Amino acid sequence: MTLADERIDRLHELARAATKECNDDRARYYVRLAKRVAERQRRPFPTAFERSVCGACDAYLRPGKNARTRLQDGHVVVTCDCGNQSRYPY
Ligand SMILES: [Zn+2]
Q: Where does Zn(2+) bind (predicted)?
């Protein structure tokens, strides 16, 4: 666990908290910050974090609020409000 990993974890928490308070712009800011830290330090982006972030608009996704989650042919399909879909097997 490096300092960068800790910062990314912390930003994940902040993004989640901001989304809870409907502060979507702030959440997006934290997401972008975390991505930048990961890139600069060449750290892998944690899978759990990656999956709760829209790849197109960097929104922190909350199913039922700004994202739809559906199961399809052995995949989880998450649709962001911006229309971007991400899928992964379960
Ligand atoms: Zn989006």
A: 54, 57, 80, 82
R_g over Cα of the chain: 13
Q: Domain range for residue 25?
A: 3-89
Cβ-based neighbours of 73, under 8 Å, separated by 6 or more: none
pTM: 0.91
How many domains is the chain partitioned into structurally? Answer: 1
Q: Is 22 annotated as a binding residue?
A: no
Q: What is the pLDDT of residues 53-67, one digit of tens each?
A: 999 999 999 999 999
**Average pLDDT in the chain:** 95
| Distance from the alpha carbon of residue 86 to the mean position of ligand 1, in angstroms | 10
C-alpha span between 89 and 15 (Å, rounded): 24
